[in-house]
Every structure is written in structure tokens, then in C-alpha cells.
Automatic annotation (TrEMBL):
Residues 249-301 form the PAC domain. Residues 178-231 form the PAS domain. GO terms for molecular function: catalytic activity. SUPFAM superfamilies: Nucleotide cyclase, PYP-like sensor domain (PAS domain). This is PAS domain S-box-containing protein/diguanylate cyclase (GGDEF)-like protein.
Length: 467
């Protein structure tokens, strides 16, 4: 296959038999035929001379060239090959011959084009340059054009050869536009774009990082990303997920800002691989979700907390208790459950008012809390009924805690808004986990039964389950 790059011609062309000499190149030979008919060949390639001496073969080559070629005399088209006709969307060469080149060149490119066509003689060449060309149908094309002085039918002429770059140009433009869009996004996005290398060293980070973490990008780029994580476990969980799935979505984590604050973040990332398919790093987007997390925590707190006393509400208590119950079933460990109910509480409300009753409930909860350990659960099941779950507590231990609570409640000083003092008592029923308990409800039922007995036996007492 020929490679007609920089086709350079000396022409002595008649209308019927054309004689063109090409510099042409193949892997095997290079050859030149000059206008005086002489042929210069590389040594050892004389066979090609036979080919070059056949002038009609050059005319044939001119016709089959995939590159548009036009010969211009005095600024007017004098000869075009079929590729040129195709490029100019013209069906017949005769319609173009004699027309000024300017008719086909974009007005803004005409001064440049005219300057290049003005040169005399046949020993010069214009460098590659882009021109906007208008076809016969009015469509614009972007051409990469080279031109060279030649002799055509005994006159100074210019041979122009052009490659259609319209598509390349559109692609360039699209690329430029997408680069521009990416840059605009990169500069202005609220979230932080980041990319690390295979060792977790930050390669690129977007300017939003300064708003979120207080660092300028240059302070982070080139440093290990893990220096920004407050906890190694967060980092390890992230790495594990990325290595396992190649990506993470809305992955929760935390980072430490320049001023030492811990920021909640959510990360969308994906693993990067090199051409050989080897892991090459991670790129992704980090979002500051501190506000969202605070709201979520607040919502969670509201959903699980009794608004009056601040202890667990019924749902949260039972959920947690269920959890501990299952653990007891699996590991056959101990747990005891106390049901606590204030005695004659209706009377407090009736005598001192509902607000005073509320205050009494708050004091009650605070007093009970003091008697419990971190691992114990305390919740308000409703009204003046409460429940305590003691983990790893046997009967003597549970009885001791319950008695202490009962005692402290009865000696807890309370006063009404008008200054009247009064006290409260509490009845407590206790049940302990048994191996045959198949659900938490069994334990609750037995504790409730014991509480009922405490009430019916006179209140202000602790009763251990009977059977
Ligand atoms: N102030 C106040 N009172 C409440 C609250 N929840 C329930 N109560 C009141 O608690 C009282 C419970 O009354 P009862 O169920 O008759 O029980 P009791 O008066 O404590 O009598 P015993 O349980 O039999 O000793 C009712 O008057 C309820 O209105 C609350 O959040 N605040």
C-alpha cells in the first residue's frame, strides 16, 4: 500500500495523457520522477522505474488517491481528483474548473489562503495548515491543507492537497468541551473529588476539600489518605469493601479536619486498574454528612427515648431486651427482669397536679438509674410502669438491687409546687431467665405476675417470681 504523504508533483499534463511524478514511498522503495522525464530511484529498485515510466499510471494514481488534490492556476481551479470532488460535494469536475478558490474558502480564511497561492515558481511548499472550506452544497468542512508550487501545462501552478479533519475537529471540540465541563465541575462541586495511587497516597483532590476539612488541596496531595481518618477500623473497613467489590456506595466514615473536628462523611468510590488489570488506586467522591448524621442521631434519639424521663422508651427497651435474651439463649448466660410500678400514683396526680406527677416520674427514673450498671437496661414501658434488665445477675444480686431501689424511692423527698412534701413507693416483681424460656415474653409475664403479687400483698415490696 502506498503512503502518499506530502505528495509532491512535477507535472506535465495534457488533457488526454497526464504525466505526473510523485514522490512516493513504500517499505521497499522510494522514487521521484521530475518534469524533464528523469526518474530517480533508490539503488536496487529499478523495477519500479518501469512502473513510473508509464504516465497513464500516474493519472490513475491521481484518480484513486484517497486524499483530495486540486491544481490551481492564477487562483482558479484547474484540475481536481475524484476525492477532491467528493470532498467539495460536486458531481462533475467541469462545474468547478475555472472557479476561484476563494469561492470555496471561508471568508475569514481567505487572506491566508490567498497569501499561500500567490507564490511563484515550483520550488516551494506551504506548511500544513487548517482551512475551513465550503462545499458546493454549502456545508463547511475543516481541512488540513498542504500546498506546493508545481508546473502545470507549462505554467506556474499550486497543487493543494487536503485531508478532511471535520470529524477530528468535532472530536477535539467535544474533548475540549468535556474537559472544560469536568474542570468547571471539579472546581465548583460541593463534594470532594479525590484520587489515590496504589499506596493510598492522594494524587488529586478537588478544591471543595478546603471547605470541608480546612486543608488546601496542596496540603493533602502527595500525603497518605489514611492520615485523615480518625479511626483505623473505618479505614480498614473501607479498604476491605473496595478490594472485595471494586466499589463502595454511600459508605459511612469519618475524617478529621485541620482544626481537629471529626467530620462525618459518606464516600462513593471505585477501584482503579492499570492496563494490565492491576489495582492502581481509588477514585471517588466524599460528601460531608455531618449535619445529616446529627439529624439522624437526633431522630434516632427521639424515636428510642422517653421524652419525659430521657430513658429508653417501650419499643427501644424491648428491642434491646430481645437482643440480650437471644444472647442468653445462645450462651446460656443469666439475666433478670424487674417490673416496677409506682404505688397509688393516681393519688399524686389528683392531689398535687399532673405536672407534679411528671416531676415525680423524672426523679424516680433518676434515682433508679443511680442503682444500675452500664450494662443494665432501664426503660419506661408506659405510664408509671418501668422495667429493668440486669445482665449476668443471679437471684441474690437482683434482689439486692431491687431492694435498694425500693428503699431509695420511699426515702426520696418530693415536694409539690405549693411546697407540700410527699413521698412515693414502688412495687417490684422479678423473674430470672430459664433455659426453657423460648421468648422474652415468658420472662415478662412472670415478672408481671410477681409485680401483681407485690401489689396485692400491700405494695412497696419486692417479690421474686414463684414458679
Ligand atoms: N403525671 C403523669 N401521670 C401519669 C403519666 N402516665 C400515667 N400517669 C398516671 O398514672 C396513674 C396510674 O394510675 P393507676 O393505673 O390507677 O395506678 P396507681 O394509681 O399507681 O395504683 P396502683 O398501681 O394500683 O398502685 C394514672 O392517674 C395516670 O394518669 C405521666 O406521664 N405523667
Amino acid at each position: 500500500m502506498f503512503l502518499f504523504i506530502n505528495v509532491s508533483i512535477t507535472v506535465n499534463m495534457q488533457k488526454t495523457s497526464a504525466s505526473i511524478a510523485f514522490y512516493y514511498f513504500t517499505p521497499l522503495c522510494s522514487a521521484v520522477k521530475y518534469s524533464d522525464g528523469s526518474v530517480l530511484l533508490d539503488s536496487g529498485k529499478a523495477a519500479i522505474g518501469t512502473l513510473l515510466s508509464k504516465e497513464n499510471q500516474y493519472a490513475y494514481l491521481f484518480d484513486i488517491l484517497p486524499v483530495a488534490v486540486a491544481i490551481v492556476v492564477d487562483g482558479k481551479l484547474a484540475k481536481l481528483n475524484p476525492a477532491a470532488l467528493q470532498l467539495l460535494e460536486a458531481s462533475d469536475e467541469q462545474l468547478l474548473l475555472g472557479r476561484s478558490v476563494d469561492e470555496y474558502v471561508h471568508p475569514l480564511d481567505q487572506p491566508r489562503s490567498q497569501g499561500r497561492l500567490k507564490k511563484q515558481g515550483d520550488n516551494w511548499a506551504n506548511a500544513n495548515s487548517k482551512f475551513r472550506v465550503r462545499t458546493s452544497k454549502g456545508n463547511f468542512r475543516m481541512l488540513l491543507v498542504i500546498s506546493r508550487g508545481i508546473q502545470f501545462e507549462g505554467r506556474d501552478a499550486v497543487m493543494i492537497s487536503g485531508m478532511d479533519m471535520t470529524q477530528h475537529n468535532e472530536m477535539d471540540e467535544q474533548l475540549r468541551l468535556s474537559e472544560f465541563n469536568f474542570r468547571r465541575l471539579f472546581e465548583n462541586m460541593q463534594d470532594v473529588y479525590y484520587r489515590t495511587d496504589v499506596h493510598g497516597v492522594v494524587q488529586k483532590v478537588s478544591p471543595a476539600v478546603s471547605k470541608i476539612l480546612g486543608y488546601a488541596p496542596e496540603e493533602i496531595e502527595g500525603k497518605p489518605a489514611e492520615a485523615l481518618y480518625p479511626s483505623a477500623s473505618d479505614r480498614d473497613a473501607f479498604k476491605k469493601e473496595i478490594m472485595m467489590h471494586g466499589m463502595v456506595n454511600d459508605f459511612p466514615g469519618q475524617m478529621v479536619s485541620k482544626d481537629g473536628r471529626v467530620i462525618d462523611i459518606s464516600v462513593n468510590s471505585q477501584a482503579l486498574f492499570d492496563d494490565d488489570g492491576k489495582f492502581a488506586g481509588v477514585e471517588g467522591i466524599c460528601r460531608d454528612v455531618t449535619q445529616r448524621k446529627m439529624l439522624e442521631r437526633e431522630l434516632q434519639r427521639l424515636a428510642t427515648t422517653d421524652s419525659l424521663t430521657g430513658i429508653a422508651n417501650r419499643r427501644a427497651f424491648l428491642e434491646h431486651a430481645e437482643h440480650i435474651f437471644k444472647s442468653c439463649q445462645r450462651y446460656q448466660t443469666q439475666m433478670t427482669l424487674m417490673m416496677l410500678d409506682l404505688d397509688f400514683f393516681k393519688n399524686i396526680n389528683d392531689e398535687y397536679g399532673h405536672q407534679c406527677g411528671d416531676q415525680a416520674l423524672i426523679h424516680f427514673a433518676e434515682t433508679v438509674k443511680v442503682e444500675l450498671r452500664e450494662s443494665d437496661l432501664f426503660g419506661r414501658l408506659g405510664g408509671e410502669e418501668f422495667c429493668v434488665l440486669l445482665q449476668q445477675a443471679d437471684r441474690p444480686e437482683a434482689m439486692l438491687v431491687a431492694e435498694r431501689i425500693r428503699d431509695h424511692i420511699q426515702s426520696m423527698p418530693l415536694s409539690s409546687a405549693s411546697g407540700e412534701t410527699f413521698s412515693l413507693t414502688v412495687s417490684i416483681g422479678i423473674a430470672i431467665y430459664r433455659a426453657e424460656d423460648d421468648r422474652l415474653g415468658r420472662l415478662l409475664e412472670r415478672a408481671d405476675k410477681a409485680l401483681y403479687q407485690a401489689k396485692s400483698h400491700g405494695r412497696n415490696q419486692v417479690i421474686w417470681e414463684t414458679c
